[in-house]
Amino acid sequence: MHAPSVGSLLGLLHLARPIIGASNKGPALEWSPPTPHILPNKDAARHNAHRIFTTLHSAGRQWGSSTDHNGMSFFRATVPEGSYFFHGSQRPDRPTGFEWLAFEIEHSQFFATPWDPSRGPGRGPGRDPDGVDVEEWHDWRRAHSAHGAKPVLFLSDQDSQHPMSISEDGRRGSNVSRPTRGYLHTYRAARPLNLLYVDGMGAGKSKYGTLDTQDFILRGKTPGEFEGVPGGGVSGESDRAKELCEVADEWARQGGGRIDGIMRMEVGFEIIYCHFEEGGGLDLVSLDATALRNETGWVDPQVHAFEWVRAVGLRYDGFPKTRLNIDWSSIVSAYFYNINLTNPDTQRSEMPRVVNATNEERAAIKSKVQETMAVQRHNGNNIDWQGIVDLLVGRYSDRLAFLSKEDITVEDMRQEVNFLLYSYINFDDSDAKPSLERCRAKHLETALLKRPSWTQEDELLFTAVETVSEDICSTLIDMWEILGHKDASLAKPKQYLQGLKSRLNWSTWKKCGTCASVDEVCFVAMFPFGTVEDHYNPRCKNRTEIAGGWRDGGGERYWKM
């Protein structure tokens, strides 16, 4: 067992619970500890238990992070040495400083698409008969970062695309008259990379609050600073990336350990990588120019879009551990605090925001992120909280859906509930009934074996997961007691079940199931793609339907500023 670091000792003073297994290496952190009354606590974890449960289930997964896109949490994540990443650019030069990396090659291929000035303004990827230039997609305008490389997507206020071209400094202007190539960079991690993962649709530039934790917690901005700014300030990606990397570098200078980049999600996971230059942790593997429209090998933008979505669909349920590791015990979440997370938009109350939290409260969360990122622990002590949550979702998701069928009979419901509680009843007892305690604790036993080495965050996660488990079990027991009567009706059990499902709100119930054809993908709105209908009612779509969703008449766009 290692002695706690100074950062951990500060946490001990403020949270009255030791972090066991922390490293004592490195200088002390120079940071302002949280104000004593603004602390993560079990009462908040119980109050927000279902949202914390959903956070664990969705983290690092495209599907749940799309349906519940307003992330409120931070995690330490690592990718192994030798991992491949991709960068699409309009320049053949290796960037320096901060830039963007994609986990999927299909993601970066979009940004490496060549510019063809012969393609006039169009109506989106469904334009008949032969598609559309990527510059026109979704009425989005492409701008470039300070390094002239990563295109930053943001919603245009106008109805048609304003293409940009390459100028001498690598930026696109409006006067280039000949096609220009794009370039696909492939990089390999020269060492394990340390990332700060911001959950939810953290790369989604929208008015919904997808950027709240970055702008108002990590960057320390206030909502008032964005008043009157076009797009509410959400489109300033270059400034955002620059400041996030400055925060990471400052924490490292204070002895908090290296953070190589910020991991976020849009239609695909990406990394704002803070030091692209040689020696920054990335080896350049290849740099390939992309095909112009009239060359053999050119790919239609509709195909690009569909295959990008298909590739992203492979991450609906997350990454293999050989690709990404999230330290669940490192979580820092706004849900752990007694703060106001109400959305000022009453029409979107299901999506939390931090705009109503005080500056002091947001600063306290930022300090906790800094402290947690500084503490290095042995992986053997970490609890796989997502795995525990998966066991609960796996056991109950389909069965609760079955119990919710409109045409279910009393006997079918009785038999299913009997089955779910069967292993928690001792039938030798004269008054045999399900044990709430055994049902509640069943899937938490493996975590409890490691309780002596739990972090403060583990205690809060346990509180939340146990609360959700108890909610499921107690609801089923209430249904069991009613259904045990011969003359039982479905009214009360259905009422209990409806309330439970509303509280759980699991993303699994929005999945499409297996699509009928291999030329279809289950599609949900993922920034910058998708309509309002796609968000609320995901379904299987083919290439034409996905492309048609962005032309006039394809439906109301979901992602707005």
From TrEMBL:
The keyword Signal applies. Residues 1-21 form the signal peptide. This is Uncharacterized protein. Keywords: Signal. Residues 113-133, 160-179 are annotated as: Disordered.
